[in-house]
Structures are given as structure tokens and as C-alpha cells.
Write a structure and sequence with these properties.
single chain; alpha+beta; Aminopeptidase; four-stranded antiparallel beta sheet; 15 helices; 18 strands; 21% strand; elongated; binds zinc ion
Length: 461
């Protein structure tokens, strides 16, 4: 039996024990957005450090910078001439409301081959799949490459201090290849490699009409209503199909072909996103639906100052504001998109209302060719593990840590994988990890180190 076959067999045998350990991780409500849970995030860091040490990794340390939640580092040096692979994951969780869950969010619960619990897939199961692969290699005599692990405790709040960790601990990040395990797969059968992210532009638009509130019975009919004006303005930004008009990006036919079969059907949208039986998804207009999710901009109204039921009154308001969140296409220029939106809002402001448009935040997207020996190695590893070719996919959201790695390490291949699938419901209620997918990703992780070792000379330039 070759070393890689032994590592695969050992890792496979460790999966049931690892999934029991996952229950211990899920039990800690390590919610990074909640200052009252900071102690749980720290406890989770200690638990992760403990398990990395127990697995045989060296230099295990809980890292700190001031006014931030911790990171954890670890490494395993096998040979100076071997390439170094950095594995990234995170151990913090999104907040949760137990009332919306079918089982307690902090109690890992199995139903139909899936393990339900907050963080089970995002991202406790993600980095755990890497740790199991490592342990498989250790049991088979040691991994074929040098490894570093870097686990973050603030991913779910947008990695606000990861750049400071990169500055304070540069050796903890130094690597020839980075494997960032916190991403999605198109299905439990098809492995995914994430190659693009959408950007994010947040715009606030305000309409003003009056110096103060006035009675709608007395003045309605003579004065403009800013609430109606705001609804008309927002309605004018989208086309008949419900999509942001005027900012569409060109997408080539080859890309469309490469994602054939990956788009969710209306039935998938009902099952995975809770779309109601009488409602259909937005009409994709003959294009792959994933194009609209990954490669085109989209507008969402995320906040307004429209009257709420608790504040209902027969008055005309002086001012109304909406916060518009625009997911930008991966290559879209945020400044140009903002200039366009400002002009459109000014044109669309009805009834002669005063209009003000401000940019709140902008983050550009990211698009990656994902070509070269590291990606060829990943493609071989995944195809061997899944029996299906690796598919390049996009992410509709904006993931700050990926943008940060891409900016800080522009010449290092970033392999973005993970244990999530369309049913995972990361960040939502009933988050879950598919056990069979976890097993396949563990296999892929074992094989990836073998494949990377085979192209060592090309990786270490
Ligand atoms: Zn995550």
C-alpha cells in the first residue's frame, strides 16, 4: 500500500470520531458578533489549539493582537525543500435564534445523513476536515508537504483584524499555496472551487420635502409624500423582472457553458431557500440562474425609515431614507457603479423632492483565473475523491477574508474549498453538514497534499 493509500484509509477511519468531536465544538456558542460570547470564542480557540497539538502539529499557539478575538496557528515541517501549504479556517460562529431551529443550535443532531448545528459546516466542519486529513497522513508516516494552520476567530464579523494578524505574525502565513477551507460546493456530489466573489456597494438615498411632520388629513393632496416618493424611486431602479437596471455586465458564452446544470430550479429554491409554493424565482431570461447570483449585480433594500406599524400616524413625514445594498459583479468598478446609481436616483426622484445620495461603503469583488500547477493538482485530487470533475463556481456574497488574502498574497495560489452545499443554510436556522460530503472532502484534502507534493518543483519558485 502506498503512503497516500494508507493516509486515505487512516483518515477515513478517523471520520466517525471527528464528527463526535464536532459536537463538542458546536456546543460552544462562539458567536464573534456578541461581546458577551467573547469568552466562548476564546474557549473555542483553546479547544482548537488542544486538538491541533493532539494531532501532532508543532508550534501551536493562540495568537492575540490588542482589541481583537484570537487566532490559532500551528505547523508541521517535514523537509526544507518541500513546498509549504497554509490551511485557513475559522472557529467563530454566526448568531442564532433557537426558536427558528428544529433542534437546539448548539446540540449537533443527525437527521437523514445531515448533522444540524450552528457552525457544523461554516466553518467548524471545514477546518476539521483538514485536521482529519492531516491525522491520516501522520498515521501513514507524515504529510508529503510542510503545513501551516491558521484559524481565525472573527471571520463572521468580516475579519476586521486579520490584516493586523498578517502584519504581526508574517511567518504564520508564509506559504507556497493557500487552501482556504470555508467555501461551497455546487452539490453534495459535485466538488466546487470558488473563483469569484461579488463586491458590495452600500448606498443611502434620502428624499426631503418638509421642515417637519404635518397632518395628512389637512395637507394630503397639496404636499408630496416622501414615503410614496421613495417607493417610486426604488421601483424605478429595477426592471420588470425585478433586477437592477443599467449595470449588467458582459458574461461570455464559455463561462455560461461551464456552469451548465449548476443553477437551482424553482423546486430547489423552495427546498433550500424557503420560497413559497405560489411564488417563482426571478425569471433567468434564458441564462443560467447562477449568472444572476454570481456574475451580475443585484439590488436589495436593507433598511428604510418608512413608517413602521408601531409608529403609524396620520402624518406626512418630512424625510424618508433607504439603504440600498448592491452586490457588484466580480469585475465591476465600485466608483463607476456608485456614479451611475447616484445619477439614476437624482433622475428618478419624483414630485420635485430634494434628493441626497451617499456612499456608505464599497468593496470590490474578486475574479480569479485559477490556473497553474496548484489548481491542476486540486482538480486531480477532487476528481479522484468525488469521481466527478471539479467545477469552478462563484460566490454571490462578499467574503472579506478572501479579498484580503488575494490582496496580500497576489502571487500565491488560493485554493478555495469547503464542506458546504446548497442545503447547508450557513448563517441561517438549521445549518447542517452532509456527512457523506464531509467524508469526500476529507479524501480530497488527503489527495490534495499528495498532488501538491508531486508538483513541488513548480510550486516553489
Ligand atoms: Zn465561514
Amino acid at each position: 500500500m502506498s503512503a497516500v493509500e494508507r493516509a486515505l484509509a487512516e483518515a477515513e477511519a478517523l471520520v466517525p470520531e471527528a464528527l463526535r468531536r464536532l459536537a463538542d465544538y458546536v456546543r460552544l456558542p462562539a458567536v464573534s458578533s456578541d461581546p458577551e460570547r467573547a469568552a466562548d470564542v476564546r474557549r473555542m480557540a483553546e479547544l482548537a489549539a488542544h486538538d491541533l497539538r493532539a494531532a501532532g502539529l508543532a508550534g501551536v499557539e493562540v495568537l492575540e493582537v490588542p482589541d481583537a478575538l484570537p487566532c490559532v496557528r500551528a505547523e508541521r515541517q517535514v523537509a526544507a525543500e518541500a513546498p509549504t501549504v497554509l490551511v485557513y479556517g475559522h472557529f467563530d460562529q454566526q448568531p442564532f435564534d433557537p426558536a427558528l431551529w428544529d433542534s437546539p443550535p448548539n446540540q449537533l443532531t443527525e437527521r437523514d445523513g445531515r448533522l444540524y448545528g450552528r457552525g457544523a459546516a461554516d466553518d467548524l466542519g471545514g477546518w476539521l476536515s483538514q485536521l482529519v486529513a492531516f491525522r491520516g497522513w501522520e498515521a501513514a508516516g507524515g504529510p508529503p508537504v510542510n503545513l501551516r494552520y491558521l484559524l481565525e476567530g472573527e471571520e463572521e464579523i468580516g475579519s476586521p483584524n486579520l490584516g493586523r494578524y498578517m502584519d504581526a505574525f508574517p511567518d504564520a502565513f508564509a506559504a507556497d499555496v493557500m487552501v482556504l477551507t470555508d467555501c461551497d460546493n455546487p452539490s453534495t456530489e459535485v466538488p466546487g472551487l470558488t473563483v469569484s466573489l461579488r463586491g458590495l456597494l452600500e448606498v443611502e438615498v434620502s428624499l426631503r420635502a418638509l421642515a417637519g411632520k404635518v397632518h395628512s388629513g389637512l395637507w394630503g393632496g397639496a404636499l408630496p409624500d416622501v414615503s410614496v416618493g421613495l417607493c417610486k424611486l426604488i421601483g424605478g431602479l429595477v426592471d420588470e423582472g425585478g433586477r437592477l437596471a443599467g449595470l449588467e455586465q458582459p458574461v461570455d458564452a464559455a463561462w455560461r457553458e461551464s456552469v451548465a446544470g449548476l443553477s437551482p430550479s424553482d423546486e430547489d429554491l423552495r427546498r433550500d431557500a424557503g420560497l413559497l409554493p405560489g411564488v417563482s424565482g426571478l425569471d433567468p431570461g434564458g441564462r443560467p440562474r447562477v449568472e444572476w447570483m454570481w456574475r451580475q449585480p443585484h439590488l436589495t433594500v436593507v433598511a428604510t425609515t418608512l413608517p413602521s406599524p408601531e409608529r403609524a400616524a396620520n402624518v406626512l413625514l418630512p424625510e424618508a431614507t433607504a439603504r440600498l445594498s448592491v452586490r457588484l459583479a466580480p469585475e465591476q468598478d465600485a466608483d463607476e457603479a456608485f456614479a451611475f446609481l447616484r445619477r439614476r436616483c437624482e433622475e428618478l426622484a419624483p414630485f420635485g423632492l430634494e434628493v441626497r445620495v451617499e456612499r456608505r461603503l464599497a468593496a470590490e469583488g474578486w475574479s480569479y483565473a485559477a490556473e497553474g500547477p496548484a489548481f491542476d493538482a486540486a482538480a486531480r485530487a477532487y476528481e479522484r475523491a468525488f469521481g466527478r470533475p471539479l467545477v469552478k463556481i462563484g460566490v454571490g456574497g462578499s467574503i472579506p477574508f478572501i479579498a484580503l488574502f488575494a490582496e496580500r498574497f497576489p502571487d500565491t495560489p488560493l485554493v478555495l474549498n469547503g464542506v458546504m452545499d446548497p442545503r447547508t443554510s450557513a448563517h441561517g436556522p438549521n445549518e447542517s453538514l452532509d456527512k457523506e460530503l464531509f467524508r469526500k472532502v476529507v479524501r480530497a484534502n488527503v489527495l490534495l497534499l499528495d498532488e501538491l507534493a508531486r508538483v513541488a518543483d513548480d510550486l516553489r519558485r
